[in-house]
């Protein structure tokens, strides 16, 4: 089973890019972030025509997450537990082909310090709590999406420039490391421990051309999935397509049970 994550940065505006990539790579499951579309504006028919069922959690102008699958999707949860007042569409969870898949779009947190960083850290704590509960069930789980954090200096071009940014502040990285330490495996780093790998390149200053990127889109695998990991990678070339997102798709291949 090939599972991918892709921050599309506007699902309707970049629909041709998304459909071209789906046709080219044929993942079995896709987690999308930053739909930037209200619930009723999700391009369901185009996704169906491409061969995918879909569930989605939309929001006007901002956020929004979706899970696409070639087969059946059993929705388990929309919205991250722990704060009934939080109206941001940032989490959706489904059961697909024997695996629980959580699709997330963690808050950016800038400008930092400030209320946006506070919200990010609070959201992180809720994710850590929910992830712990998922691990305790002893079932195959994949938590993937745009985490908006570079875990180490290896994951960012010129780390010294990012020290005060909410994607790289010590307390944000510490939260990510606490999450992973529960027993999750960072799929990319398991297979490529020493390589420079990025998933995001800004639109400014020819960042993509210079490969001045960040690794902020991650796959965390529970122990029940980690042993089935066959391959992982970043479809970096998609970032170079016309009118593409500033993120590239990231994917893992896991052995079917």
UniProtKB/TrEMBL annotation:
Pfam families: Exo_endo_phos. Keywords: Hydrolase, Magnesium, Metal-binding. InterPro entries: AP_endonuc_1 (IPR004808), AP_endonuclease_F1_BS (IPR020847), AP_endonuclease_F1_CS (IPR020848), Endo/exonu/phosph_ase_sf (IPR036691), Endo/exonuclease/phosphatase (IPR005135), ExoIII-like (IPR037493). Residues 4-247 form the Endonuclease/exonuclease/phosphatase domain. It is an enzyme of class 3 (hydrolase). It comes from the Bacteria. GO terms for molecular function: double-stranded DNA 3'-5' DNA exonuclease activity. Its cofactor is Mg(2+); Mn(2+). SUPFAM superfamilies: DNase I-like. Its EC number is 3.1.11.2. Belongs to the DNA repair enzymes AP/ExoA family. NCBIfam families: exoDNase_III, xth. This is Exodeoxyribonuclease III. The lineage of its organism: Bacteria, Pseudomonadati, Bacteroidota, Sphingobacteriia, Sphingobacteriales.
């Amino acid at each position: 089973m090939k599972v991918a994550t892709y921050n599309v940065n506007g699902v309707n505006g970049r629909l041709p890019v998304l459909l071209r990539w789906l046709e080219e790579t044929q993942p079995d499951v896709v987690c999308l972030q930053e739909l930037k579309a209200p619930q009723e504006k999700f391009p369901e028919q185009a996704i169906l025509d491409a061969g995918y069922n879909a569930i989605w959690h939309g929001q006007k102008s901002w956020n929004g997450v979706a899970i696409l699958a070639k087969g059946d999707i059993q929705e388990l949860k929309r919205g991250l537990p722990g704060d009934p007042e939080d109206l941001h569409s940032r989490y959706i969870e489904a059961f697909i082909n024997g695996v629980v898949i959580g699709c997330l779009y963690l808050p950016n947190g800038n400008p930092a310090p400030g209320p946006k960083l506070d919200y990010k850290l609070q959201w992180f704590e809720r994710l850590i709590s929910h992830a712990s509960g998922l691990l305790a069930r002893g079932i195959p789980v994949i938590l993937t999406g745009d985490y908006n954090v570079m875990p180490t200096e290896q994951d960012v071009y010129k780390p010294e420039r990012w020290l005060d940014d909410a994607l790289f502040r010590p307390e944000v990285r510490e939260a990510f490391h606490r999450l992973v330490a529960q027993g999750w495996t960072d799929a990319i780093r398991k297979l490529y421990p020493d390589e420079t790998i990025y998933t995001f390149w800004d639109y400014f200053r020819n960042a993509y051309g210079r490969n001045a990127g960040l690794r902020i889109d991650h796959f965390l695998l529970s122990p029940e999935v980690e042993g089935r990991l066959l391959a992982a990678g970043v479809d970096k070339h998609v970032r170079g397509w016309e009118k593409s997102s500033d993120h590239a798709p990231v994917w893992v291949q896991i052995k079917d049970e």
